[in-house]
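User: Can you recover a sequence for this backbone? Please restate the input before giving your answer.

Assistant: Of course. Working from this structure:
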């Protein structure tokens, strides 16, 4: 632990033999050391200082001697970084860079930058901001230098706002009692810098004390004094919803509600605007010249303070801008085409599954055989009784002819299954009991069959849908989504399914064109589930509105709807992505905004606003099942197919009977068309 503490206290100290004679009057009176001690002790009373990083050169190194550390009340690690006067801090050497990174990793929330060369300090701040080596939201104590306030550096003072500039004023030589004093100033945040940087005075330090005794690092973001903040937005449901009515646009959505709440709590006025050519560039991408277009371009170039547009919490966005803590998590998946399964031709078979049909046929054959066996047994008993009572030879038991032959027995058993009553009640209590119980079986079976068929005819036809990434990869559909980053997401996937998707992934920047391709059954579009639902509803109601407004195109629109596939949102999520609000890089507004967004999420406002944003879309959804539950001719194809099979078999039997009559019966030597009864008597005798 001792060596670790020593590493924090001194990481990169370049040996200095003797302090430079420059500003030796400050060294003699220790004024700079005293003002730093007072500032640190004053800040310690109002703020939680966890670590202090000191960046100085050889000129100011001797300020931090042993007496300095004895005077301060802070008991925190100090990271000392001493740089050479000639070192270019826009590209620091390895030791300096590692020391800066160590200070950032240790959580240093205060930086003391004492560099005699103002250009060197400016280049250090530019490097630290660009590569996030310095914590721009920390507290800074910097020597006042007009070169820090050049117009090219104004963007830094929109990010580094907790800063104190120390401007030394020498004592007046002609006045005996005059002493050196320091002017403490800061950036005029939240007021924008207009052309010339004019620092705002915080306090004066003279004679070992502060004149106004104000808080040196007051919070500047809790009250922005009704300042105007530029907010760039992109219309993307449900984050931002733009409703155009009577040539006026009303902007709503979850993120708009969040911004309105933040503006009330932090006292600022949001000025909403869209980037140039937003329909073409949308979120924006890196251009060949290195700049960015679209929404990201507005943020990277510093023209906007906040960004709204369903920004995903990804490393790509975090590299370019700052993101708030996620306020929600969205399911990102694919919009795929549906395929109807035309099984209307087998409507008669659909009420029962295969094994049920096998059971029905087996019961039919077994019961018919039992009826035949019982009928034969009853005929045998009747013959014995007839012999005992000497009845006439031609008397037969009533009703046994129904089951006297195996074919007739099967047919009448099948007739009872169709709820067709028997023409005669058969003789014999065994057959009568079996008939009664078989009737109960037939009633239960037929009622089940009718109920199942009613449900099949009433419900819409089953659809073939793609609901998993495996099914999508196995299909022949081309996949697509917005931007090259979406494609890179699948290309960087570690599983084979993601790689298969990336191989046929196309960049599609227009969701309307993508929806047309999906409806044609050749494409799958990637976006968040709420936006995909919005695309489906807008497409459905767009056709309806077009039909109403353009009566001449009614036929063509209806034909187009009939030929296109229905759109289906894949039920499985490819990934659940956190969604955040964007800030410009190293924005000072992020810490307090994160606190308010956390409270907004905890009280359930985000969920309520999400339901409000999706309410109109849900109300415009058409209930396709109610429309498709109507009976139509297509659903009765099975009945006509059964009738056609009956016609076909009947015609085949008729042709067979005619062929047998002409080829067999007529050619028999015993055939006599004038005495057919004799012919059939001879045939029966032979049998």
């Amino acid at each position: 632990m001792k060596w670790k503490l020593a590493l924090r206290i001194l990481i990169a100290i370049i040996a200095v033999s003797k302090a430079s004679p420059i500003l030796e009057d400050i060294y003699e009176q220790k004024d700079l050391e005293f003002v730093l001690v007072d500032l640190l002790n004053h800040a310690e009373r109002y703020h939680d200082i966890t670590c202090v990083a000191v960046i100085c050169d050889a000129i100011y190194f001797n300020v931090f001697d042993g007496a300095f550390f004895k005077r301060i009340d802070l008991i925190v690690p100090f990271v000392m970084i001493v740089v050479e006067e000639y070192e270019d801090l826009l590209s620091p050497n390895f030791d300096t860079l590692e020391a800066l990174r160590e200070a950032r990793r240790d959580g240093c929330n205060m930086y003391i930058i004492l560099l005699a060369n103002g250009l060197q300090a400016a280049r250090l701040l530019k490097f630290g901001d660009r590569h996030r080596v310095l914590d721009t939201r920390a507290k800074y104590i910097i020597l006042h230098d007009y070169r820090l306030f050049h117009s090219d550096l104004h963007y830094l003072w929109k990010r580094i706002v907790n800063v104190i500039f120390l401007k030394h004023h020498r004592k007046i030589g002609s006045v005996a009692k005059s002493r050196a004093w320091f002017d403490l100033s800061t950036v005029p945040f939240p007021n924008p810098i207009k052309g010339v940087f004019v620092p705002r005075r915080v306090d004066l330090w003279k004679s070992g004390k502060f004149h106004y005794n104000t808080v040196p690092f007051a919070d500047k973001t809790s009250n922005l004094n009704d300042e105007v903040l530029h907010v760039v937005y992109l219309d993307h449901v449900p984050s931002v919803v733009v409703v155009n009515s009577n040539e006026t646009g009303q902007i709503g959505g979850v993120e708009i509600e969040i911004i309105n709440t933040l503006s009330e709590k932090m006292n600022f006025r949001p000025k909403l605007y869209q980037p140039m050519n937003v329909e073409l560039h949308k979120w924006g991408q890196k251009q060949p010249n290195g700049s960015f277009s679209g929404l990201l371009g507005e943020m990277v170039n510093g023209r906007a303070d906040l960004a709204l547009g369903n920004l995903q919490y990804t490393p790509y966005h975090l590299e370019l801008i700052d993101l708030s803590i996620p306020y929600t998590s969205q399911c990102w998946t694919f919009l795929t085409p549906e395929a109807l399964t035309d099984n209307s031709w087998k409507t008669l078979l659909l009420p029962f599954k295969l094994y049920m049909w096998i059971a029905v046929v087996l019961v039919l054959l077994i019961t018919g055989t039992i009826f035949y066996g019982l009928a034969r047994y009853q005929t045998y008993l009747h013959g014995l009784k007839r012999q005992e009572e000497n009845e006439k030879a031609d008397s037969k038991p009533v009703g046994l002819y129904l089951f006297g032959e195996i074919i007739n027995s099967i047919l009448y058993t099948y007739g009872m299954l169709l709820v067709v009553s028997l023409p005669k009640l058969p003789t014999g209590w065994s057959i009568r009991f079996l008939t009664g119980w078989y009737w109960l079986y037939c009633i239960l079976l037929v009622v089940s069959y009718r109920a199942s068929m009613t449900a099949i005819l009433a419900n819409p036809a089953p659809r073939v849908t793609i609901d998993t990434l495996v099914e999508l990869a196995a299909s022949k559909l081309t996949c697509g989504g917005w931007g090259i980053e979406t494609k890179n997401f699948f290309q960087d996937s570690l599983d084979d399914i993601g790689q298969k998707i990336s191989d046929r992934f196309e960049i599609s920047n227009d969701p309307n064109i993508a929806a047309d391709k999906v409806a044609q059954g050749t494409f799958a579009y990637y976006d968040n589930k709420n936006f995909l639902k919005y695309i489906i509803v807008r497409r459905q109601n767009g056709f309806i509105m077009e039909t109403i407004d353009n009566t001449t195109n009614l036929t063509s629109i209806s034909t187009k709807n009939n030929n296109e596939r229905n759109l289906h949102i894949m039920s499985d999520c490819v990934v659940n992505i956190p969604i955040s609000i964007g800030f410009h890089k190293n924005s000072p507004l992020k810490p307090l905004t994160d606190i308010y967004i956390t409270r907004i999420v905890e009280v359930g406002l985000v969920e309520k606003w999400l339901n409000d944003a999706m309410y109109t879309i849900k109300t415009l959804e058409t209930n396709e099942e109610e429309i498709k539950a109507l009976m139509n001719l297509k659903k009765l194809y099975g009945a006509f197919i059964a009738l056609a099979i009956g016609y076909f078999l009947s015609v085949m039997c008729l042709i067979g009977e005619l062929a047998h009559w002409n080829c067999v019966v007529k050619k028999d030597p015993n055939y006599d068309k004038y005495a057919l009864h004799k012919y059939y008597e001879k045939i029966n005798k032979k049998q």
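That completes the design. The CA atoms of residues 361 and 414 lie 10 Å apart.
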